[in-house]
Structure formats: C-alpha cells, structure tokens
Amino acid sequence: MVPTGVAVAIPEGFAGLVTPRSGLAVKHGVGIVNSPGLVDSGYRGELTVLLVNHGDSPFKILRGDRIGQLVVVPVANQEFEIVDELPDSVRGEGGFGSTGR
Fold it and tell me: What pTM was computed for the model?
C-alpha cells in the first residue's frame, strides 16, 4: 500500500477509478493489484495505491513519482430487482472465450 499524500472529494453520483500507468508496467513490471481501485464519492481519506512488482528488480518509489492515475466517472443510481429467471440473450450463459477471438 503506497500512500499518495492526496485526498479528494469526489461528487455524489461519481466514482474514482485508480488505474495503472502503462509506463511503469512496461519499464519496470509494476502494476496495481486491484486495478482499477474504486474510490467511492463518500471517501475523504488519503488515497493509497496497491502496487505489485512483477519485475526482476526492486523498484524504489520516490516522493512525487506518478504511480497511478485517477479517472472520475459517472455512476448510475441502480435499483435491483430479485427475479426467478433472467430474459434470454444472444450470448446466453456463454462465459470466457464464448464471443470469439
């Protein structure tokens, strides 16, 4: 868990997605474990990034290094209904790899 020193106030109806930086992955094998990390609109604490090093060498993080990026997206206000059956679809229950290449 890498602290960022940053706290944000994401407006209600939105969420923040902490995503990896492709340069860290390509150059050092460093990524985010739970990518994307979700920041709810009600959270007001310091953002932390859960990094993992898949590389062969230790990776040192210095203050001010960019280790992730925050994407703020709208979140639909959903209400769920419990049903006994789901309607049919073209895909049906086809899982991983069922849609082709």
Answer: 0.79
